[in-house]
Amino acid sequence: MNYIVPDILLLIFPFIVIGSRLFCSTKSNIPWRIANVGCIAIFILLNFIPLANGNGVFFLSNWRVDDFGILMREVLMVSAILGIWLSKDYFEHSADGRPQLHQIAEFIGAIAFATFGGVVVVSACDLVTFFLGLEIATIPMYALTAWNKKDLIGSEAATKYILMGSVATAFELFGFSYLYGFAGSLHFTDIQSAVAAGPSPLLWIAVLFLFCGIGFKLTLFPFYTWAPDVYEGAPTPVTAVLSVSSKATAIAFLVVLVFGPLAPIQEQIAPLIALLAGTTLFVGNLGALKQSRLRRFMAYSSIAQAGYIMIALLGPATIAETAIIYYLFVYAVSNYLAFFVFAIIGHHREEIFASLKGLSKQNPSIAIALAISMFSLAGIPPLAGFFGKFHLFFSGASTGHYAIVAFAVLNNVIALYYYIQLIKSAWVDEPDGHLTPIRLTRRQRSVVILLSIAVVVLGFLPFLSNNIFSGFTF
Amino acid sequence: MNLMNCLILAFILFGIGVWGLIRRRHLVGMLISIELMLNAANINFISFAYFTAHDSTAGAIFSIFVFAVTACEMAIALAIIVNMYRRHHSLDVDQLRELHD
Amino acid sequence: MINDVTLSYLIFILPLLSFVVNGLFLCRKSDKAAAAMGISANGIAAISAIILAVHYFTSGLAPQKAILFEHEFIPFGNFLANIGCLIDPLSIMMLVVVTFISFMVNIYSVGYMRGDRATGRFFALLSLFSFSMLGLVAATNLFQMFIFWELVGVSSYLLIGFWYHKPSAVSASKQAFILTRFADSFFLLGIVLVSYVVQSFDFSTLNDLTLSSFKAETIDLGLLVVSKADALILGSVLIFTGGWGKSAMFPMHIWLPNAMEGPTPVSSIIHSATMVVAGVYLVARLFPFFAICGSTLTLIMIVGAFTMVFAAVIACTQKDIKRILAYSTLSQLGYMMFALGVCQVGQTIVTTGWTASTFHIFTHAFFKCSLFLIAGSLIHQVHTNDLDAMGGLRKKMPWTYWCTLISILAISGIPPFSGFFSKDEIILAAFQGHHYVVFGLALLTSGLTTFYMFRLFFLAFHGEPRHEGVKAGHVHEDFAMTLPIVILAVPALLSGIAGKSLFAAFFVPGKIHAPQLVKLTEASWIPFAAVVIAIIALALAWFFYASPKARIAKALDESNRSGIYKTVYHKFYFDEMYYAVVRQFVIGGIARVARFIEDYIVGTLVNFSVWFIHKLGDLVRVAQGGYLPFYLGTLIVGVLLWRFLGNLPL
Amino acid sequence: MDTILFNLIWIIPLLTVLVCVPISANHGKLLKTIHATSATFVLLLVCFLVYRVYALSGTPVDENAAPLFLRFFTNIPWISLFNAHYIVGADALNILLLALTSFIVWAGVLVSWNIKGNQKVFFALIQLLATSVYGVYMSMDLVLFFVFYEMEALCMYLMIACYGSGRRDYGGKKLTLTLAFGSSMILATLFGLYFESGINSWSIVELSKVVLPMDFQMWAFPLMFMGFAVSSSLFPFHFWSPDGHSAAPTAVSMLAAGVMMKMGAYGCLRVAMFLMPEAAKIWLPYVVALLIFNVVLGPFIALRHKDLKYITAYSSISHLGLIFLGLAALTPVGLRGASLQMISHGFLTGLFFATIGMIYERTHTRDITEMGGIMRKIPFLGVGFVLAGFAGLGLPGFSGFIAESNIFIGAFQQESTLTRIVTILAILSVTTTAVYILQTANRMLHGPLPQKYESLTDGCFREKLVIVVLAACLLFIGLCPTWISEFLDQSIAPIFDNISRVGR
Fold first, then answer.
1. Distance, in angstroms, between C612 CA and closest chain A CA?
2. Domain-by-domain residue ranges, chain B?
3. Total Cβ atoms within 10 A of residue D500
4. How distant is the Cα of C634 from the closest Cα of chain B, in angstroms?
């Protein structure tokens, strides 16, 4: 029974937060406090759930809670918590030369809904639930992107996002419809048996449309085009949540799909996955080369990261799922660390490379944190990012796809190049006069330190990796 | 009146939707074309449910869900577009050039 | 109980000790202490060397070889490189010469270096040199010889460039080191090649080879595949190349005259008496090995003979007293070299040349060393190397004068002075080897030698003083400098008579796997011919430079001279040629090409790849134009793209 | 006990960093003292362990470590997700390389005493770099090895770009990215090693027991070998080292040229050649063709340069070419020569860069044409430089000669035509080395003294200590090479056995 409790809590949690607005003033901190308490409580609760060793636990025949699901919930919750922390400052004063945000309660509620959508996706076992989950995860994001009503580029980003997103939805639906037509049923087990019985053109059309549809959400080549604009236009905390939560949801969607209904034809679609992965990470790396604005830069970097994640899908189920979960944890932490640093910068300056100048002279601690997060994203050991990427490649190579692994690894050099560009502007460039040193609030400092330590130790401290994933049978 | 005709019809509808999406310059027009694409998917569901699928209720249920979901999506979309109009005083996609490399 | 082994250890340890102590501690503290250290160390070494020699020759051990001690240095898989002390008549003779002369020079330096800034360093380096030279002559194998060969080279480099603030000295030292190093690289290649074929470094093994056993298997030398026998012959040539450079034979001779930029004691010990004969010593040491590679000996003979004449001709025109001596050293080295070469008679071998050559090493060491020391004390008095500024020194420096006469008579081969015996044996050997051209050249050169030596003698000591210092009578003899000169005059006078029987008795190159020439043609007229020629040359020199009607001034100015004289005076423009080759070809040619490859080809490739990546990045960002319909268009493209590329079986 | 001490080697620098975190950057003296003490301690520790390994030689080892005769063998499960273990062990080769590293790190800490900028961060980075290098030489597990191997990229860029001189950002980027390129090639093949071996193990010891499939070896070996060769600046991939060295601060140049460039050659030997010997025997005779550039043209390029650090960088390139010549010889003597050259070149290039850095601190120029005659003012530093030069041109009595003679004799035993040609060229090109080293020394130290250098002061005690210690190491190896040769043979023998394994 206790398997379902966190989900129920997560479902009612946003209503509580939004409801709390009725009892307190607009400015008060209470909704935010409640949100923190709730999220952390749910996260702890999730950690107490014993892993079910592979076989899932069912509710009402189409709500499955398995190990991957539980760990995915944890990833989503981590992302939500960090997102909420990150967003706090943006409701207190304006940042990056843009008007400040309002209605934190609803904001948190939306984030919570999106998280719940991710939970639905990982625990769905028929197409309807699956589709609903994806939509629940996506629609709040549209709203969040447009949260800043007075912001020009915000509304433009939202418009682009929702148009592209709806088209993506249409593609997925089209794919779903063919899948349904092929299997004659919506339930994953039936679809899987039908696929195992023998593929047909219908199935292939379905696969094509499904991958293209999810390609939007996961910003795969060539469907990533919306990402840079939206990431830049959205408020910074929303960008962070987008780059972690919605990516996590999308990749979870693919994992459920590839290792669930489509498992029998994983071999045949491996080339498609490899191509998507290769092109995506290559284009993402190339795009990030000459950026000057931080959020757009992060957009391209996260596009490239999506490409890296795709490689894991080539491996066998257990390794791939472990790899993806592990990587998502690492990626969430590193990415949020970067975004926290950007937020700290952004509250005093514009969010561009130039405003990082002389950071190492004025605020060495922030510069170090930035370097840590960047090197981790670039996959330099002993930081967590390296082990995450290593695990992804491990999964890809375990089925002998050395070529794509080699290609991805070579791309790491380009990635390192542009991450170093960022580090350069923080470490090498001399500070110019009008940039005053930044004072950190206690919350900011503690979060940055916490995340930095996490990034450093998460990788090579063995007990973490051993215990978190002990559920998986190797 | 057989499955293939319905599929072809759906596919044509989908194609029209895509075509409109790319040709139209007006945001509302684009939303409508998206609606066409979604409905093409619905037609698929219904027809599969009617002709082949062994649990034929599922397809119908799915299409109903689709209506619901699309409704919320469109609601949000229209809200955003209204806000958009407030800021830019136009609904022409060619105006959306602020964000670019 | 002092036995041979302890003596030999003593001979090696003491100079090394003096080097270390002087170099690390004394050189900054006190010059006197450094000098005392150097002198005492080398003196004891010399005494123990003499004791060792006496014991070796009297105990009936001679002329067998013996290895007094040997330590493993580097094991090269299946063959070892050892450090040891080999004694046989040759090495004993060299040990005595080296220790004795370095002892003399140490004493001399006290006077010569008085008041110099870095006397301590000088003594330290002198001891380093004598240590390395001793290690070289006592080598038991090629590898040890190469090690000390290099050490000798570097100590010579350091001593030539001792006054490192003089640009000329610096460049001279660099030239000397690099030229010898160039030759040594071939030497090293030869060692590697030979040791690969023979699987050993030991002289005993090498001298005991027969080519026939190597005819069968072949070896790949990269460009050409040859039989191992030919590889050995090539190896012998390469090894000789090392000696070629070290002994400054003809094309590689230019460093030796330039090396005269160093302090004179250095010139006397390194560049006349000991180091430069290392090349000759190398060939003599490996003689049986060279003998089986007959053609190499012919090469050696040609090189030696040519250098002999060439250097003697140049010496006749020089005015820098040290350069004259340097060229005469070259010419004497030529004697020794070709004396080893003439042992090759057709297919047979005659060993008289070997004996003569080693004998000449012995005698030459003494008189040439003393000549240099004399030149040093002259320079010390008149503060110039130039004969223009000398003359009339006989009265002022009587001791020096008489010692000079002895040494010059010795080098001119006038009986009963030492040079006579050794040189005559060499000429005789050339005759007995039926190498009549070389024989003639040798006779001619002995005449030239007499001429230029007496030219120097007369111009320096006779005639009117041409130097204010001399006129004013500031000139005097320094005891510390005159003492070694006088001491050295004794062996310059006597070593010939004393040594003749000794060398005849003991000095044979050892067992040779080549047919010996048994019947030797007797030619008792040769000594007389040589003496006659010498006396004629003496008379000429007297006529030109000392006779009452000699016009010294005219003899000394090289303006309004014939072209030939100018060419000779400028040493056939060899230095200039060298500079042209090195500057234009090496630095200007190869190095520039290499730098070009590095900077332009490699650099361009690297920059191009970076530029290419950036261009691709621009492409991606161009697509990101912010135009929504284009974004939507990518979706169709994507679907079609993956439908075809994703090889879905549709 | 020894095992614990052995594992401390890479832990101590890390702990030092952690200890220094709370200390504020204003207490520069305290920080420097802490770092110097820890470096000295590690130095002594490693020397003690060298003695221990030497003393233990001949005694039986842990049977898991048997194929390599590893001492202090430690094997702990690390990351079970991809079956990575923490495996470390010491044999003669890597304990000597560890000793080299500890010396260079110690010297590096001392020479960068007065470095400009945030000293706290700088010394922390040096210690991190030290950790990574120690780790590389210790680890016998490929994941661990790669983690340490790749770590240095993180430190290198920051150290060069923030504390360097000249085009520091450019040089740092060039160095870091090229090294990253190399290590990416390595990483790609590591997975192949793991999965193709069929035993699913990252342990070098275990992998050396199996014969990898030939078709895999044929593409994996060149990829991995070149990947490692990048950081040892083998010909096509040498371009990073001149710019990187010239931009880097003294200590970083010392560490980079002294120990980091050896990591590549060590990897070639310990991983690529040791695990894929069959392919090595096929490929290496062709690899030597690249050495014509390193060994023959490298010195000529140095001849054309005026900047001391460029000259030294190209001399390093040529010396490292000799290491590869020794490796390509595939004979015990050649391999030993290569290992000796790694150690000897580490010391001599450390001495080179140390003296250059000290002289640069005084003259504020590295252009040899502007200097001259400073030997009279700074005899101690000058003598240090000249000693390094002599060692560099392979003078007997210095370690360089021992290594080079081993390499030449070993390489000549390799029958392949190409190797012969390259060996002969290499032997003949010792002259060129002499030319540029003497030219540099003469232009810089000798000749008349310019007016502006009248006020130069000779090295202080700290600098003299560094010079004396490094020169002593050079002379020690050069004067009694017997024991080090025999000591190295203990670890060369098993590697050679694996290379010359037959019939499969």
1. 11
2. 3-93
3. 12
4. 10
